[in-house]
Amino acid sequence: MSDVIVVGADGSPTALAAVEWAADDAARTRVPLRIVYAVERQPYQLSRFSDTALDDALDQEAAEVLAAAEAAARDRHAGLAISVEAVDGGAADVLREQAAKFGEVVVGSRGLGGFAGLVVGSVSMRVAGHAPGPVVVVRNRPEWVRGEIVVGVDDSPECRPALAYAFEQAWARESALRAVHTWQLPVYAYAANAAYELDQINADHRIVATELVDSFRGRYPGVRVTIDVHCEHPVVALIDASAEADLLVVGSHGRSGLGSAVLGSVSRSVLHHAHCPVAVVRPRM
User: Fold this and answer.
1) Measuring CA to CA, which residue among 265, 215, 202, 200 is closest to residue 235?
2) Which helix (H) or strand (E) holds 83?
3) Among 50-54, 71-75, 180-184, 200-204, which stretch is predicted with the lowest mean pLDDT?
4) Closest to 112 measured CA to CA, from 43, 61, 169
5) What average pLDDT does the chain have?
6) Which domains does the chain have, with CATH numbers?
7) Could you say which DSSP state residue 283 is in?
8) Cα separations (Å) of 172 from 26, 140, 220, 282?
9) What's the whole-model pTM score?
10) Whose CA is closest to 136, among 282, 266, 284, 283?
11) How many Cα atoms within 13 Å fall on the side-chain side of residue 104?
């Protein structure tokens, strides 16, 4: 569990939804909320000398956005410990640095102002693909509480931090947890003389998923868990499950050609198409 929850603010509707989501999460998990505004001065510093008036205007905008975000958070949870800060730098860099220092980061899926260009596929994608720990991308808050967290599970090492975070969320919310595990037939299975038993393959995959989930059950005895196993593409299964979820949690398996961490195809796809907020959880080094 994070010691502090960080949320990016910029005055946009999705950033406001992210602030409200983060405030709720901080209240549930009883940790402080930190609201951050990225002041990107570089595009305006075209001359050799600084422009004091422009700097003052950028600082004033940051103060106004942070004040509005703090007010929105306090409207939801008056007693919540909240700090605010304007940080010089690009949005993605600022949020990645905050993640490394504090833990969980929450962002809106489309931003304005200090987080200009914050859309799925841009800044939010870069933060989710590089920041350590959980990054929650909020398009809008669900209109009602559904009482279920969905998590994608497989037998990779990257799955364990995501599953741990999903259990923490379910525990804090007193929600059910749905673990979704998928598998696909290899190409040779479609050959005319291939011998395979679908029921047995499905049963074997259920054993894998159950053993993984059971390794966390003891820490969260009150969480009700359902394990879904499908012969289906993981993106399809996770997006379908997200329609009835308060939060979808996935790990990230991506690597770039240079070896730096990036989003995998499943994480990228669910960020674009999920029906609820998505948490991408990368291991903390």
Assistant:
1) 265
2) strand 82-88
3) 50-54
4) 61
5) 85
6) 5-138 (3.40.50.620), 148-282 (3.40.50.12370)
7) P
8) 10, 21, 10, 20
9) 0.87
10) 282
11) 27
